[in-house]
Design brief:
Chain lengths: 451, 462
């Protein structure tokens, strides 16, 4: 029977307590930690150029007109809003239809429908891009590979996501050298990997992260021709591409045009069968301004199977795709059961209402134009040529190439906040702070020349 | 499942599909005449690691929801998933929640900006107050860490990930039976789980002796997952006195208590009463081991699909807290950053508004009473109907249990027959969501239960 003893706390060894002492302190997150610093800064000229959130010409975070209208619709139509019930594990059917339609019919009209018709896409509504990457990482680590190639430099969280979700080997591929994209170095590295694997008869598969457009943090993207060369190599080497599409629409202002990397990967003529799939991680955070609502998706393009050769229409669905669906569900169920509803309802309304969708396209175009304008205005003041290299410089970020010390000076002396890698979020620049900012940038850039 | 292409087609989709597939294929073959596509893809196929992936059975609860949705019968009753329904069988948005939504939308500064990694401070701090109590020593001594999570599952997942990262050898004890997802949440993180006795089927009551014996014989420092109130699926909770024995036994072996608190305020309608076990645990274990609390606002605020919850960690009284607290917080932030970056904002803002606006809080308390008393009424109605029908067996446990569920004691066979013959859906374990009952269907359900019980009683005699 139970031994009940009086509580002589002194006798009890605080077993777990002391073992909590062994938990080391993790470094603060590079981006979101800086915002906290910024809030405490007392300089009236302070400028926060860290987080990738779009701000308007008055420095305000505003809700897109299309989204605001969608919200109004949701609020006024009770039947849309009164149901806060659980969504299915991988998101609502409507969301799936609307988003797949947008991604695979409108953005990829030539080949997307082929994959849809063959049931070769497993789809999960996720917590924006991070959630999509995390679910993909867990799935890949379980079944396919624990090796990932991440561009150097890349979004700081990429490494964290893969490291914390089952990946064992994080490799970096050269992406950037002397202010230019380093395509040659990149491809050479991949070929060396293939060569070494062949030599050692190593059959281990490797995954590779590709930024679909508006590379974070450099803002530099390969040209369409360069992409062909890169994807050809990746296909040849049987690597598993993970396309991270967080900024669709912010490059050209044209939503559909910006999906070019996805269109290329899905090109059945060029790449008849990705034998270990293609993973598309997509987010509505930036291009719909739904940041904190956490809306995005993961699409797994599954390899061709014998089922595809079988033209029997009575056969229900694609069994491989169903297996993958079931595994993705299990992963999500163990992480958070089902995704949050609100943001996906907004996306549903925007995507399913022709007028609102049109408005959304215009909103994105407007946003891209403003970022374009900011680059030009900064060029007027600084005369840095890469600011207006519009063929390759895209999106929300400008990569200053400042070293960590310069970034520190910028922060401490001028209260201008960039991320530690020298990334500058252009959307925080506006008419009222651009002169001050450019003077500060100019001063700091000259500092390096002396040093 | 991806059937979008198909769903858009008219009812004669079979024919359309057939034509479509042929067209696509011809086109493809024509385009690829120069390439030996089939052969190449076949080769690739055999190399694909995807082929090793097996099909998992659908999640039981979400599977019920799906079958129920497809059921064409006019009278059907869903007693599966744990979501509150009003007396018309409809989802109910709490009046307090509606008011909070209005306030948020009319606020000029409302936007969709990212929350911090650890969530909305006005949510996490107020949420800590309602579960630990405003007078809580742990809060006053500033030794509670609170982060926002995706409801209860998300909080449990954070706990599981934290254990697997820093204490991978800990054995996790779950009640037998327990919420179906508990095992998966811990095992997906590579932790070993086992069970402790909880429900004594013969007496339909708590197996306290078995429970205590399991605590005593568990390896020192194991993790005990406890349902703080309205035990899922049995609806049976320990009494205050039994809780004291349980927590003392846990303290004696330096175990770690993890309270899964998904139904605070839903069981009795009173937040403080329903927090009894958690507060007792935090107090009694304050010099023994930290207490993990996984809190959900899915049920008590009706936030189901908005995924609002918190993960709290009450540290023990000790000098090192000054360094431990920021270290643990930083590790939790790293975990969150790697999976969701930052938690969803909308639901969090609503619940924060509920908790920080006195008039809304007051209305919310009333809403919880509305929900819990309706469920109590339904428990009595079901039991009384069964008694009136003289259904074989004793049904008093239905009114003694609390919270959303009743562990009816029906066998899987009976449950199956309920679904097939009567369109009454519940989980195979015999767990019925009482919230699915209302004045309009309770008699129908009682008659259906009566029929299946008699059906199998007769069959057993044959």
């Amino acid at each position: 029977m139970l031994r009940t003893r009086p509580f002589n706390w002194g006798l009890l060894r605080p077993y777990f307590t002391s073992s909590l002492c062994k938990v080391p302190r993790a470094p603060p997150d590079k981006v979101l930690g800086l915002s906290e610093h910024f809030k405490k800064d007392k300089n009236i000229h302070k400028i926060d150029l860290t987080v990738g959130i779009y701000k308007d010409a008055w420095g305000k975070v505003t809700t897109f007109p299309s989204v605001a209208k969608a919200q109004k619709l949701i609020d006024s139509h009770l039947e849309l809003n009164k149901n806060l019930s659980y969504l299915p594990i991988t998101g609502s059917k409507e969301f799936q239809e609307n988003v797949m339609n947008f991604l695979f019919k409108e953005s990829c009209p030539q080949f997307g429908p082929f994959y849809l018709a063959h049931d070769r896409i497993s789809f999960v509504q996720t917590l924006s891009g991070t959630g999509a990457l995390a679910v993909a990482a867990k799935f890949l680590a379980l079944f396919i590979s624990k090796d990932i190639w991440i561009p150097d430099p890349s979004w700081a969280n990429h490494r964290n996501i893969f490291q914390n979700n089952g990946f064992e080997n994080i490799h970096r591929y050269s992406y950037y050298k002397d202010g230019q994209i380093d395509i040659d170095g990149w491809i050479k590295q991949l070929k060396t990997l293939a060569h070494n694997q062949k030599k050692e008869n190593d059959k281990q598969l490797h995954c590779i992260i590709l930024h679909a457009c508006c590379h974070n943090p450099t803002g530099l993207d390969p040209t369409k021709e360069q992409w062909k060369e890169i994807i050809d190599t990746i296909y040849e080497l049987k690597m598993v591409p993970i396309v991270d599409m967080a900024y669709q629409g912010l490059e050209s202002g044209d939503m559909l045009k910006d999906a070019y990397l996805m269109r290329l990967c899905l090109d059945v003529d060029r790449y008849p069968n990705w034998s270990n799939g293609v993973f598309l991680c997509q987010s509505f955070a930036k291009n719909m301004g739904l940041y904190g609502e956490r809306v995005g998706s993961l699409s797994v393009i599954t390899p061709a199977t014998a089922d595809d050769e079988n033209l029997n229409p009575l056969q229900r669905g694609n069994s491989l795709q169903q297996n993958i669906d079931s595994q993705l569900k299990q992963i999500v169920r163990g992480m958070y059961s089902s995704p949050p509803g609100y943001g996906s309802r907004v996306v549903n309304v925007v995507l399913s209402n022709t007028k609102l969708k049109h408005q959304w396209f215009k909103d994105v175009e407007f946003m891209a134009q403003r970022l374009h304008y900011v680059r030009k205005e900064m060029f007027e003041r600084l005369r840095w040529p890469d600011l207006i290299n519009f063929a390759q410089q895209h999106g929300m970020f400008y990569y200053t190439r400042f070293n960590p010390r310069q970034v520190e000076v910028l922060k401490n002396k001028f209260s201008v906040y960039l991320t530690g890698d020298g990334r500058l979020s252009l959307s925080g620049v506006n008419d009222s702070n651009i002169d001050y900012l450019c003077e500060a940038l100019d001063a700091v850039s000259k500092m390096s020349e002396i040093a | 499942m991806s059937q979008c292409g198909r769903r858009r087609l008219p009812c004669s989709w079979l024919a359309h599909m057939y034509i479509l597939r042929i067209c696509m294929f011809k086109e493809l073959l024509l385009r690829n005449t120069n390439k030996p596509r089939t052969q190449e893809s076949n080769n690739a196929m055999s190399a694909s690691l995807f082929n090793n992936i097996e099909l998992l059975p659908p999640d039981a609860l979400f599977g019920i929801k799906q079958r129920y949705g497809q059921d064409q019968r006019t009278t059907k009753v869903d007693l599966g998933i744990g979501a509150y329904r009003d007396n018309n069988g409809k989802p109910w948005v709490l009046p307090s929640v509606k008011a909070a939504e209005k306030l948020i939308h009319s606020d000029e500064s409302y936007n969709h900006e990212y929350l911090g990694i650890t969530g909305l401070p006005s949510l996490t701090s107020n949420a800590a107050k309602i579960i630990f109590g405003t007078q809580s020593a742990a809060l006053q001594e500033d030794r509670v860490i609170s982060v926002q999570s995706l409801s209860g599952t998300g909080a449990l997942h954070i706990a599981a990930k934290f254990f697997s990262k820093f204490y991978p050898d800990k054995l996790v004890y779950l009640s037998k039976p327990t919420w179906a997802n508990h095992t998966a949440i811990f095992e997906n993180q590579g932790l070993k789980t086992t069970t402790y006795p909880y429900w004594a089927n013969e007496t339909k009551s708590l197996d306290l002796d078995g429970f205590l014996r399991a605590i005593q014989s568990a390896p020192e420092g194991s993790v005990f997952v406890l349902h703080s109130c309205a035990h899922n699926p049995t609806g049976l909770d320990p009494t205050n006195d039994q809780w004291a024995q349980i927590v003392d036994a846990i303290a004696a072996k330096n175990h770690v208590a993890l309270f899964d608190t998904a139904y605070q305020g839903f069981a009795t309608g009173d937040l403080d009463k329903d927090a009894y076990a958690v507060r007792l645990g935090v107090e009694k274990l304050s010099t023994v081991s930290p207490v993990f609390v996984c809190q959900s606002f899915a049920k008590n605020a009706g936030m189901y699909g908005e995924r609002v919850g918190c993960f709290h960690l009450a540290l023990t009284k000790q000098a090192q807290n000054k360094t431990i607290k920021p270290a643990v917080t930083s590790q939790l932030a790293k975990i969150i950053r790697s999976e969701v970056s930052n938690p969803p904002a909308y639901g969090a803002k609503i619940v924060a508004k509920l908790l920080e606006t006195p008039e809304l809080t007051e209305q919310w308390h009333k809403d919880m009473v509305t929900m819990s008393s309706r469920i109590t009424t339904m428990r009595h109605a079901l039991r009384d109907h069964l008694v009136k029908l003289a259904t074989p067996g004793n049904w008093d446990h239905i009114v003694h249990q609390c919270g959303m569920f009743s562990f009816t004691g029906l066998t899987p066979h009976m449950v199956k027959r309920l679904e097939e013959t009567h369109a009454v859906y519940l989980v195979a374990s015999g767990r019925a969501s009482i919230a699915g009952l209302n004045q309009g269907n309770v008699e129908y359900v009682a008659k259906a239960i009566d029929e299946v019980v008699r059906f199998y009683a007769t069959e057993a005699k044959l």
